[in-house]
Specification:
It is found in: Cell envelope. The protein is α+β, with helices and mostly antiparallel strands. It has helices at residues 3-9, 11-17, 31-35, 87-90, 93-97, 120-137, 164-176; strands at residues 45-50, 59-65, 68-74, 105-107, 116-118, 139-143, 146-158, 179-184. It is 31% helix and 27% strand.
């Protein structure tokens, strides 16, 4: 490559000598950048979602290709975040495709040092048994001669990004179980 060809290919020279003095278009475009395509160009569909990390509830566009999540970006239509995501939200693709993601139920017994794999039915039965036992052990029919019909043995702390319908169902479930400590992470 000769000196003249090298200088002509230099973006600053093209910016100063061409029709793009601010360097916002053709002056800064190289052959390589002209060949680049967006990562989301091959997506089959876009699914609207909400970031799962905090109580803000930033909107996300989830790009899906062949039934697999390929990219997650901020949703410009979201009135909450207007297309922006914090570093954790921008890295939320790892939740679906990251190598450290667990795909099985793991359980560590009390005082145990190792995790063991359980099938889902066994894990759900263990949770149900523990809820029933905690409810039974903490049940109060009355306190100071006032009828209470409640349990102090279980509580609920909901996630910040659950929608109204999910929170409604969780509230109904724990109220039916007799729990009085029903809180949501969004308010903490």
């Amino acid at each position: 490559m000769g000196v003249r060809t090298w200088i002509d290919s230099w973006p600053v020279y093209r910016q100063l000598k061409g029709t793009d003095p601010l360097g916002l278009g053709a002056a800064v475009r190289s052959g390589r950048s002209a060949r680049l395509a967006p990562r989301v160009a091959t997506a089959d569909r876009i699914v609207k979602s909400v970031c799962p990390y905090c109580a803000v509830g930033c909107g996300q566009n989830v790009y899906v290709e062949d039934g697999r999540v390929t990219q997650i970006e901020g949703d410009p239509d979201s009135p909450v975040s207007r297309g922006r995501l914090c570093p954790k939200g921008a890295a939320s693709l790892q939740l679906t495709t990251g190598g450290a993601r667990e795909h099985h139920v793991l359980h560590r017994r009390p005082h145990g040092t190792a995790w063991e794999r359980l099938d889902l039915d066994t894990a759900m039965d263990m949770i149900a048994d523990r809820v029933i036992e905690a409810r039974r052990a903490g049940w109060q029919w009355e306190v100071d001669q006032a009828r209470t019909r409640r349990t102090m043995g279980i509580a609920s702390l909901g996630g910040a990004t659950l929608d109204n319908e999910e929170n409604y169902l969780i509230k109904k479930l724990f109220t039916a179980l007799g729990a009085v400590q029903i809180e949501n992470q969004a308010r903490i």
